[in-house]
Amino acid sequence: MPTEERKRALVLSGGGGRGAYHVGALRFLEEHEWLPNVVVGTSIGAVNGAAMASGHNARSLWALWQRLKTQDVQKVNLNPLDGNFLLDTSPLRETLGRDGWVDFERLNSPEAAVHLRVTATEVNTGQLQVFGNSQDAYPSKMRKEPLGIDHIIASCSIPIIYPATQLHESLYWDGATVANTPLGPAIDAGAEEIVVVIMTPWGNQDGKVTETPRNLLSAASTTLEWALLASFRADLKMFRRVNEMVRLKIENARLRAANALLLKQIDGDAVDYLDENKDGVPDILQKQYQELPEPIIVAPIEIIPVEQIISYTREGHERLYKMGYRDAQRAWRAAGKLVEGEG
Fold this sequence. Notes:
Blueprint: E1 8-12, H1 20-31, E2 38-42, H2 44-53, H3 58-67, E3 75-76, E4 87-88, H4 90-98, H5 104-107, E5 115-122, E6 128-132, E7 143-144, H6 149-155, E8 165-167, E9 170-174, H7 184-189, E10 193-197, H8 216-267, H9 283-286, E11 296-298, H10 314-334
Parallel strand pairs: 1-2, 1-10, 2-5, 6-7, 10-11
Antiparallel strand pairs: 3-4, 5-6, 5-9, 8-9
Helix pairs in contact: 1-3, 1-10, 3-10
């Protein structure tokens, strides 16, 4: 890695052809000098993450997306009865290597631009596997190994739509099958600030709600969106519980420190606890516990049509790119951060 800095992590969700949304959000973050050290990508998030690890920024990545068409990603499976998938992803393999999306030599070298984590779901066990190009900061089950095209394609292998991908001795499906936007890998990598870019509406934003499904397509779309969101809700709930446990430990440390200080004063002993930030917790104890700030969640207000998962068009990319930028701006403002130009 070019640096051991791991403070900032960007978590990119799955979403297929809607991946230009990530790029719009990334452009806003870059304009506000928030540059990730760690990128965790699932499905199309793994593609964008691998491109970032290869040295792409929002500008160069957007140039690639503007040229990306459906035929560059997939083709119809001509023998659907011989398999359990509808579309063949062999065009994506060719595109990623041919058109300059990913430089695997750089990605796996000390010159990689970010610490990259990609996820995939093991078909026979349903277990989420995390693969990375560097060691985690904390003990984890992440597999540190040279990342290749199969890792990226495995993360993109949406069940039924695309074929499972062979990796090592196992078959893998899309990481979003069980965890669309996992926070755990970002924390294990050492992140302290996390921005999540998810392409599913997050709560009741700005007073808008999702319409009740009125036909089979809209019902399928809504079902898929809420299924993808469920794992992230569980991840965020666990994140908040861990933070609450940390807060309790910090308070306990403060009480123990105050008690020890009082006993020393009663005995007439010199006080030797260093507390530079004057928060009542000795610095030696402070280092043991760290509460992480709430993730900034960039998400659309309304559901993006499900058909765009397998549709890659210039018009669709431009609409989603602009949407991602606006939603990142709104999330940034909601987090109490200054948006450039708004004073």
